[in-house]
């Protein structure tokens, strides 16, 4: 969790201010410009922030030099005066807290920059920006939710869960955030808390499809497939086109021995995508359903298509090998098994299948040749 931070004005000139933030043991400078641009843009009103993190004297000196040489004069003079005061005093001159409007503006723009960083996949930068945003506006649940997502993407699951719990608390238990928190608990196999979040979200908004989907996920993890299916159906009643839930539903049908219903669900799902762009997982589950229905040739065709999409896993080639074997195509089964082991040499199911195929070949080679009929 981001520790509490204090924001101070270090200097100001007209509508320009520089804010110092002490967060996680580091000083950060946020220069805020609010007002009209220089004469050539006098008709435009803007708000801009410059964030330097972590704050160091070397960066500050560089910023000071740039402020004096290239910034618009009001902004440059304000930032220069502010940073010069910080450098001279060693960050000990903290005269007053920044006005609420400046802090809110800076927090909002930090969140915007964090979102831009997350869209680029730069989660390290996003985490720092969101952390600063929550330090400036500790009561903004949107900032905490963004911060939690960045932490999660960086693998800091425990901290991310705490941050999301804070977002839920500040939002007065907003159902959508309860679902996100429940998903984090579920990913960490904390079924009790995940179930509590799902039930709380459903109680707050009984028509929230995501909440029913989460409940289905939790119940699936407990092994109660019939109850999970009921929850997924509720989710689909509120959002008919819900690919993730349709996939889970099809898989449960297959596990319950209802292969034809599974296949129908998957074909309905596939129609939501342009022809030839169906996700590989949809095709794999179709292949498994066809195998369960003893339609092995069709299964081979569908699974071959899945194996040609993107970067197939060893599991895809394993299922293809099984379909080839059950269709009586031992050469194809052997090839697909080799492909699976080339991707993952430790894939246990493929290792076992390879042993079976090689055993069958040895048995055929050792058997005597049939005599010509008289």
Describe the structure.
This protein is of the alpha+beta class. Among the domains are: 6-103, no CATH class; 175-240, Alpha Horseshoe (Serine Threonine Protein Phosphatase 5, Tetratricopeptide repeat). 65% of the residues lie in helices and 10% in strands. It has helices spanning 57-69, 73-89, 100-119, 123-136, 141-153, 157-170, 175-187, 191-204, 209-222, 225-238, 243-255, 259-270, 280-292, 296-307, 314-326, 330-343, 348-366; strands spanning 6-13, 16-23, 26-36, 45-52, 96-97. A 5-stranded antiparallel beta sheet has the order 4-3-2-1-5. It is elongated. Mean pLDDT is 79; it is low at 1-27, 29-76, 86-98 and 369-374.
Key phrases:
disordered C terminus; 374 residues; 10% strand; disordered N terminus; Serine Threonine Protein Phosphatase 5, Tetratricopeptide repeat; alpha+beta; five-stranded antiparallel β-sheet
For the sheet with most strands, the description reads: 5 strands, antiparallel
- What helical percentage do the residues reach? 55-70%
pLDDT < 50 runs, ≥5 residues: 1-27, 29-76, 86-98, 369-374
Shape: elongated
What value does the Rg take, in angstroms? 30 Å
β-strand percent reads 5-15%
Distance between the termini: 87 Å
Q: What structural class results from the helix and strand content? A: alpha+beta
Total helical segments: 17
Strand order of the largest sheet: 4-3-2-1-5
Topology, number of strands: 5
SSE order, one letter for each helix or strand: EEEEHHEHHHHHHHHHHHHHHH
Mean pLDDT: 79
